[in-house]
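Priority: medium. Attachment 1 of 2:
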């Protein structure tokens, strides 16, 4: 059995939306499909469920985007590889520098990518 510790959310942004992302500031997110890569060392499924819930305190960068109108998670993928290794396999454009990557030491630039 694979013990997942990294997840990827495939996120649909139906129409362009501007979102204030905590201390990062306000950003424009063009319509499209996005990939967000995260991880949890403990309570993995609880973390994924939290992201899918609409009732939550805004804590992580992704919380702000997922709370925006017209934004929904289309799919959740689970991996047993390191978060940054999974993120670096995704080809896409970085729309917000540092998004979800404040503790990244692998030079990802962002853990949110707009898929092209």
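Attachment 2 of 2:
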């Amino acid at each position: 059995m694979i013990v997942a510790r990294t997840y990827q959310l495939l996120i649909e942004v139906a129409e362009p939306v501007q979102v204030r992302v905590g201390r990062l500031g306000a950003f424009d997110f063009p319509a499209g499909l996005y990939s967000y890569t995260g991880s949890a060392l403990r309570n993995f499924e609880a973390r994924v469920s939290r992201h899918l819930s609409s009732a939550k305190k805004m804590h992580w960068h992704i919380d702000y985007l997922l709370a925006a109108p017209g934004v929904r998670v289309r799919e959740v993928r689970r991996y047993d590889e390191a978060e940054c290794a999974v993120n670096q396999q995704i080809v896409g454009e970085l729309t917000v520098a540092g998004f979800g990557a404040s503790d990244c030491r692998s030079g990802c630039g962002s853990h949110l990518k707009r898929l092209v």
